[in-house]
Fold this protein.
Amino acid sequence: MTHQNYTKTITAKIPSSEAANKISRVSDWWTKGFKGASQKIGDSFTVNFGDTFVDFTIAEVVPEKKIVWRVTNSNLPWLKDKTEWNNTQVVWEISTDNKTTNVRMTHVGLVPTVECYENCEEGWNFFVGESLLKLFTDNKGLPDRKAKKR
């Protein structure tokens, strides 16, 4: 049996261009502890949650269709392997059907066998499934829900 990468899909009645733009507004839906740029290939950014940080580089952008973030460095202090996210990728796939946009986020490398899976699944479920969706629908996300030192 192959292990599945974490995946979350959300749907909203917004144009695909708006979805792509809002994904790149990381501080509006994930954390106010955001530094850098997240719009085009080569941009790099960091998200911070207390002692936890993750550095990303934008590896691929297909306008209104796909965005790939590559993790270049991380510190997840509650894990045995504090750099468990290193060399993983967050892939955003965007598609539109009858004025409805679907966004499928896959964290490639975040599989049930890694130590972070349960905790990270809970975080992604909230930040993508609730906060980013709320940014799509109400233009106001819910960043920093559990942004505390671990």
Summary: The chain has a mean pLDDT of 94.
